[in-house]
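Limitations

Structures in this collection are predictions, not experimental determinations, and the ligand pose is part of the prediction. Treat each record accordingly. The example that follows, with pyridoxal-5'-phosphate as the small molecule, is included so readers can see exactly what is and is not provided: the inputs are given verbatim, and the output is the predicted complex.
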Amino acid sequence: MGLFDVYSLFDIVPVKAKGCYLWDDKGNKYLDLYGGHAVISIGHSHPHYIDRISTQLNKIGFYSNSVINPLQKELADKLGELSGMDEYSLFLCNSGAEANENAFKVASFHTGRKKIVAFEKAFHGRTSAAVAATDNKKIVAPVNSFHHVEFLPFNDIEAVEQTLSKKDVAAVIIEGIQGVGGVNIPGEDFLKSLKKVCKKYGTLLILDEIQSGYGRSGKFFAFQYSGIRPDMVTMAKGMGNGFPIGGVLISPEIKAEKGMLGTTFGGNYLACAAGLAVLEVMKEEDLIRNTKETGKYLLKNIEANISYKELRGKGLMVGIEFNEKISSIRFQLLKEKCIFTGISGTNTLRLLPPLTLSKEQSDSFVGSLRALTNSS
Ligand SMILES: Cc1ncc(COP(=O)(O)O)c(C=O)c1O
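Predicted complex:
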């Protein structure tokens, strides 16, 4: 049987990974400035992560959400403590799109409304309502297109107020930092006003922290730079360091009802063990501090050494926009310098390394990029 051919693949077969490095089947060693698309938070194959998951697997791997699983509560407690959001409650699922899908449902149940507001260049996933709230017509199938979604300009509070004043919007969804859209950071004042305007018109505010959360921005969640308290926060990627897990944090003002949400696999023992290991390592190794410091160092180093059009970023979520297409530079970084990076659109190189990245590793990346961009 063949595979349904939807991915454009690099001709590389990784067989081993450790910390910020991967090795392929030919023995080549790669520096990982991509983190498997912002997923690797505590570094590849961390010993505590391996131990937590394998110990759990030797006890019980799966049952169902019809019995008590104490690991779910342990995960919620630890997440509340590390994120500073302990008055919220946690719904566990398996992916980012699923987290957003559930957040939309909660907002719609709570408000009795069906309209969603999202922003230009937003990416919220590929399931039904999540993809309808994604600003990319190419990936929205007719079956997804019946959702009531309006896209507004990023950082434009007047446009938001005008739309919300009709009082028919269930939720506004915004990324803590736009990822796929090119590392675009919402203004802190914009987020503060957004929260106020949502409250004024009875609309719930959902912060999509699927890519920008779990320490990546130098705070636990990127929106925390603005000091607001959203109605819901969605997360996935860094939460499981590669084990599929997602979640929604739900404000205490929203009440749960039995059967309102549900999932077979969400919150299973292995996913919780992975999620707990991530939080334990983040705390033990002070990874949010490392992310903030190494991120600042990396941005300064790029500023001093690379000629770019625009540099955007917070912590270890960085976009370097060039005047020209960068697919060949990205390919050279991979093939000649053995460095994985990401891309947004055609002109922006996107960096999403593990949060354990060292200053020396960031120097190595900047040196390689400088050599390639100066000679091209
Ligand atoms: C901001 C954001 N939201 C949602 C998603 C969807 O997550 P998943 O691929 O886990 O469904 C992504 C994935 O890239 C994302 O970056």
